[in-house]
Design goal:
Strand order of the largest sheet: 4-5-10-6-7
Structural class: alpha+beta
Radius of gyration: 19 Å
Order of helices and strands: EHEHEEEHHHHHEEHEEEEEEHHH
Helix content: 25-40%
Largest sheet: 5 strands, antiparallel
Number of strands: 13
Shape: globular
Number of helices: 11
């Protein structure tokens, strides 16, 4: 197996174009598992850890954060918890501290696992994935369109993930997940919620309960239409429960070793009800 180690973004794109059989690797938290269990045997590894253009983040004039694909979960927690609270919450649940230092949001997107912890908050925030190639330059893909199947994404064979663009939170965000234990575990189900009081909208993201991470559009529209954004009274229990039921209905889970489809639907309804209540309470306190 060849090992390619570009030191610039241009060199990385050139290497990708020349060797479409090369598997990109950054933190290696997903790729090394695949290699160790002999699930993949690529012709080459394309190491992106020495590409400085992937390692930074910046804020656009409209407040959108451009998060380089090589930024680790640990840095999201330490540097962006105030701007991207939902993503930071999800990052805190990823593996151990050592894994959070190595693992990257870009790598999570690249592996496109239905259970990827970063995906639900990116969906709830309406993030966009920036990808690039030598032949066609740069394009941006809404994260809801980026996942095309189980561990498949919208990347062309000659493309790499450059960054993900995430709007700075305009309101409270929440992330919850259920696992077979409380830490260092792949989720049985996961849910993220973002309140957007500036445009009176609700964002959602579902993980581990469908072939791909997905939103719950009907639940979003229902809750946004029922919330009293002006007076902000306490969230009625019945409304939170009805929201949870709509989120569960948007899922398409399967039975597997981590849980049954029925349990996943039930847990999603509970997670969504709790997340909506917590986020709404946060918004009321901020008023």
């Amino acid at each position: 197996m060849d090992f390619l180690q570009p030191s610039s973004w241009d060199d990385a794109l050139a290497a990708r174009a020349e060797r479409p059989d090369a598997l990109p690797i950054a933190g290696g938290t997903d790729v090394m598992v695949e290699l160790n269990f002999d699930r993949r045997r690529p012709g080459a590894l394309l190491d992106l850890t020495r590409v400085p253009e992937l390692a930074g983040w910046s804020v656009a004039p409209d407040g959108t954060v451009r998060l380089g694909a090589g930024v680790s979960y640990g840095r999201v927690i330490g540097e962006l918890g105030d701007r991207l609270p939902g993503l930071a919450m999800a990052a805190r649940t990823v593996g151990s501290p050592q894994i959070r230092v190595r693992g990257t949001v870009g790598g999570n997107l690249g592996s496109a696992s239905p259970a990827g912890d970063a995906h639900p908050p990116l969906l709830a925030a309406r993030a966009e994935v920036e990808v690039a190639s030598v032949a066609r330059g740069t394009r941006r893909v809404p994260v809801a369109d980026f996942f095309t199947g189980v561990k498949r994404n919208a990347l062309a064979p000659d493309e790499l993930i450059a960054a993900v663009h995430v709007p700075t939170a305009a309101g409270p965000q929440q992330f919850c997940k259920i696992g077979t234990r409380n830490a260092m575990v792949i989720s049985v189900s996961a849910f993220a919620l973002a309140l957007h009081p500036d445009r009176r909208a609700v964002g959602t993201g579902i993980g581990s309960a469908a072939p791909t991470p997905r939103r719950a559009p009907d639940a979003e529209e229902f809750l946004a239409g029922e919330l009293d954004w002006d007076r902000r009274p306490a969230l009625p229990e019945g409304l939170a429960r009805a929201f949870g039921e709509r989120v569960a209905a948007a899922a398409s889970p399967i039975d597997d070793v981590r849980g049954t489809a029925a349990y996943r639907r039930h847990s999603l309804a509970v997670l969504a009800r709790r997340a909506a209540t917590w986020a709404w309470d946060d918004l009321r306190r901020a008023a």
